[in-house]
Design goal:
Chain B: One of its GO terms (molecular function) is ATP hydrolysis activity. The complex is a heterotrimer of chains A (about 350), B (about 250) and C (about 290). Chain A is about 70% helix and about 5% strand. By secondary structure, chain A is mainly α. Chain C has a domain of about 200 residues. Classes of the chains: A mainly alpha (about 350), B alpha/beta (about 250), C mainly alpha (about 290).
Chain lengths: ~350, ~250, ~290
């Protein structure tokens, strides 16, 4: 089966999901997972593809969420108006942070962003006049109904919210797919392979790293905005480093540097956690060692490993068989459907 | 083609390269040799734009490129290989090479998201260049092989291919035959000759004396960061200063 | 004037804790070239082990500290063997992620065993002592004294013993050391053990003043990272200097500027310094 069919199938499953279950709680879990999946896609771009471990990622998601929270609750903005800013405010903040931090290589960048993440968390917790501090923001309004040719679509049911989130996730996935499959995506991968080599290939490190960084926080912020409209209550914990670790884990289990990997990880792991309900607060007793084992034995993640096997098998096929198939793109799963010269 | 005047690099108290002047001659195989720690890689880093010189000038075809960074140098046609090349192991060999021509393209975020005509054309171009480069180094049969699954010698060739795909006029090879057996070394030397015949100027650092003596048109010898000799292989072979510093010791490998 | 002196003493107290934690962290980085994000969990584990021994088994404070240091040393060595050693050839993300996995595991385990609540660690040193006309808690004096003793011991160990010298050698040049027949693996495990012991000691010294809870390591460790980056990764004098600088900065900042903002000081300093000098204040690398 080729990639187009694969993604199409996933989308179909996604669309059909509410019809397969009567349980509103399931919808809630899936919606929440999808929101974090969107954020994880962002993390995957800067960390999985470009190789820069941004430990402040959750902080940016929180900024997006709080943008919506503060504007709607304290300034009576309509939800959608506030939501439009949820991706942009993190980008504006991310610009100076990126310029400062992306000069640092490897571990230093991770440590620096860890500290930035803490600054963001502490900032949200202590700046009570703006963020309501540790108490958090409550009572974020439901997203207003949107007019469509089929009449107004309102979002006050779990099902409607689910489809809203699914819509954004699909859009986000599609854009990310375009990005990572393009020459720009290859540029990012080259940077991950090595700064020196990438530079010697004519790649401007700062400009490209910054682009990846800003895109990633845009995703995080947008997911945060969705989170605000979905959960309708915010606390500083959203900015905590643990949230970034959660997303890192989703990314790794599935396979950093693939698209399907982080998606499956972000959607699948919360379900796992659901079934191991008793583990919820202690999930890291299992997931901690799991991360370690993963990184030692399956560093490419599940999807990454599968892809590796598949590519290997394909490499050993006789040339005539292979020549029938259109060319591959390295950064997305499967075929592109176009023949290149 | 590349004129180097009084190039010096100091790291704190240590002078790694001291007042070296030379010329990398177009269309020739230029070699840099010297004992370990002589400053050869630092020298490469200076002309490749990785380090900023403490003093001196570098002129590429008459233009002052002393302060140019590595990506700028690449755009100007100076490509470089490293002692070890990290490839994306989860991808095919061909796929790894496509980014080689990226620097000559202009597609950006907008093109990527909209799937523009320019992007498709440029991707096709990069792919064609990658294929051509792979073919040039004799590894077309490895096109679909996973980058993780190729041998050390093949890796070296892929590194060459990457440099070639950038449409370089000058390629700096840092120990191109490192970790490769004598037979393979001969093969790589032939490849380097082929590169020069096709119009690329080559400058390389190597420790394998047999290879250098047979391959190089011109050799520069560095010791303790200073140039101690320069000339044809025959001249270098008999130069007392060089023998003194270097060839006399049991340094020669291959 | 009194207040000023008070802040100096506060700064010294804080700085001492930070120094001990940062020292362990910088030693491990010097040897392994990996930032051990789990270091804060070692700190926390030390406090909990001591807490358990003292409250449940009635152990004496010093014995509990010794036991805590020993057990965390063992824990750290195990971590080195099972988590970091298999990843010594991978660069990039994977060792960092493994460290984080370890951190989360230890924190969650602590929470499972002891719950998330804050605990008080009992100490026999609850009295006050007069220093330069200021009343200061005995525990604080103990902390500062203990920290200096430990740091002096560490310096002696590194400079005067053969094992210490091998650690220094390894930090300077791992491959060279291996070629000279130094068992890099064993030395790395030893370094881990030392870092764990230092962190545990710091925790047990500080916990009676602060509190004991599973997340107690996270803020400290983040500051410790800021400290060693500021001071230069792998540099012992850098860690000490950095720890004291941050300790004093926080103490004075909390009093004269704003106590809410004091936690931010370390990070803001880090941001400022790294922006101007990306390699840290002291030259990196050599212990």
């Amino acid at each position: 089966m080729n990639a187009r069919t694969g993604w199409g199938l996933l989308l179909l499953l996604g669309l059909a999901f509410p019809l397969l279950t009567d349980n509103d709680y399931h919808l809630t879990v899936m919606s929440s997972a999808s929101i974090f999946a969107l954020a994880t896609l962002g993390l995957n771009l800067i960390t999985g593809y470009t190789g820069q471990f941004n430990l402040a990622h959750a902080g940016f998601m929180a900024i997006g969420a709080y943008t919506v929270g503060i504007l709607t609750v304290d300034h009576q903005w309509p939800f959608w108006a506030a939501f439009c800013l949820s991706g942009l405010v993190p980008v504006v903040l991310g610009l100076p942070i990126g310029l400062l931090s992306l000069r640092l290589k490897g571990h230093f960048f991770a440590i620096f962003t860890m500290c930035v993440g803490y600054i963001l968390f502490l900032g949200i917790e202590k700046w009570e006049s703006l963020t309501h501090g540790a108490v958090g923001i409550i009572g974020i309004p439901v997203p207003e109904a949107l007019p469509t040719p089929f009449g107004d679509v309102s979002f006050d049911s779990p099902r409607a919210l689910y489809y809203l989130v699914l819509g954004f996730l699909t859009l986000g996935l599609w854009v990310m797919h375009r990005i990572v499959g393009s020459l720009l995506g290859r540029t990012f991968v080259a940077i991950r392979n090595g700064d020196d080599l990438a530079e010697s290939l004519g790649i401007n490190l700062m400009r490209n790293k910054l682009l990846a960084f800003l895109l990633s926080v845009f995703y995080a912020g947008t997911a945060g905005g969705l989170y605000a409209g979905f959960v309708r209550f915010l606390s500083p914990d959203l900015a905590g480093v643990e949230r970034t670790f959660d997303m890192t884990m989703y990314m790794l289990i599935g396979g950093a540097g693939t698209l399907l990997g982080p998606l499956l990880g972000a959607l699948g792991v919360p379900w796992l956690a659901q079934y191991l309900q008793f583990l919820q607060d202690y999930r890291f007793i299992v997931f901690g060692p799991l991360l370690i084992v993963l990184v030692i034995f399956l560093p490419d993640g599940i999807v990454g490993w599968v892809r590796g096997q598949w590519l290997r098998r394909r490499a050993s096929q006789p040339a005539s068989v292979v020549a029938q198939e259109p060319d591959q793109q390295s950064t997305s799963v499967g075929l592109k459907g176009e023949r290149h010269a | 083609m590349l004129e180097i005047q009084g190039l010096t690099k100091r790291f704190g108290g240590l002078t790694a390269v001291n007042d070296v002047s030379t010329c990398v001659e177009k269309g020739k195989v230029n070699a840099i040799i010297g004992p370990n720690g002589a400053g050869k890689t630092t020298f490469f880093n200076l002309i490749g734009g990785v380090h900023l010189p403490s003093a001196g000038r570098i002129l590429l075809n008459g233009e002052d490129v002393t302060r140019c960074r590595a990506d700028d140098m690449a755009l100007r046609g100076v490509a470089r290989t490293f002692q070890s090349t990290t490839l994306f192991d989860l991808s095919t060999v061909l796929d790894n090479l496509i980014v080689g021509h990226r620097l000559r393209t202009r597609s950006g975020l907008w093109d990527a998201v909209t799937g523009s005509r320019r992007l498709r054309d440029e991707e096709a171009l990069c792919r064609a260049k990658a294929r051509a480069a792979l073919d040039f180094v004799g590894l077309s049969h490895l096109e679909r092989r996973l980058a993780a699954d190729i041998t050390q010698e093949e890796r070296k060739r892929v590194a060459f291919a990457l440099a070639i795909a950038t449409d370089a006029q000058l390629v700096l090879l840092d120990e191109p035959a490192g970790g490769v057996n004598p037979e393979e070394t001969v093969g790589l030397a032939l490849l380097i000759r082929k590169m020069v015949r096709s119009g690329i100027t080559v400058c390389l650092i190597e420790h394998k004396m047999d290879m250098i003596m047979q391959l190089a048109d011109k050799i520069m010898v560095l010791n303790y960061g200073e140039k101690i000799a320069e000339g044809t292989p025959d001249e270098i072979r008999t130069n007392p200063a060089v023998i003194d510093a270097y060839l006399g010791s049991e340094h020669a490998e291959a | 004037m009194d207040m000023f002196l008070q802040q100096i003493l506060n700064g010294l107290t804080l700085g001492s804790v930070y120094c001990l934690v940062a020292l362990g962290l910088t030693l491990v980085y010097g040897i392994l070239q990996v930032p051990n994000f789990a270091h804060g969990a070692f700190y926390m584990a030390g406090a909990f082990v001591a807490f358990q021994l003292m409250s449940a088994l009635g152990w004496n404070y010093w014995l509990a500290m010794l036991a805590a240091a020993a057990s965390v040393a063992a824990l750290a060595a195990l971590a080195g063997r099972w988590v970091f050693h298999p990843l010594r050839k991978s660069s990039g993300l994977h060792p960092m992620i493994a460290a984080i996995g370890l951190l989360l595991f230890l924190e969650a385990s602590a929470q499972a065993i002891w719950g998330a609540d804050f605990r008080r660690m009992p100490t026999p040193y609850t009295g006050m002592v007069e220093v330069a006309g200021i009343g200061i808690g005995q525990q604080r004096v103990l902390l500062v004294a203990g920290a200096f003793v430990l740091m002096a011991a560490l310096q002696l160990f590194l400079k005067r013993t053969v094992v210490g010298a091998t650690i220094v050698a390894l930090a300077q040049d791992r491959e060279g050391a291996a070629l000279m027949g130094i068992d890099t693996h064993r030395v790395a495990m030893l370094t881990f053990a030392i870092s764990g012991a230092l962190a545990a000691a710091a925790a047990v010294l500080y916990a009676p003043i602060n509190l004991v809870y599973p997340a107690m390591g996270s803020l400290v460790i983040t500051k410790a990272f800021a400290i060693i980056v500021i001071g230069g990764m792998g540099s012992v004098p850098g860690a000490i200097a950095g720890g004291l600088i941050i300790g004093f900065a926080e103490s004075f900042g909390a009093f004269y500027v704003s106590s809410d903002a004091k936690d931010l000081i370390a990070f803001v300093l880090l941001v400022v310094i790294l922006s101007v000098r990306p390699q840290g204040l002291f030259t990196r690398g050599v212990l």
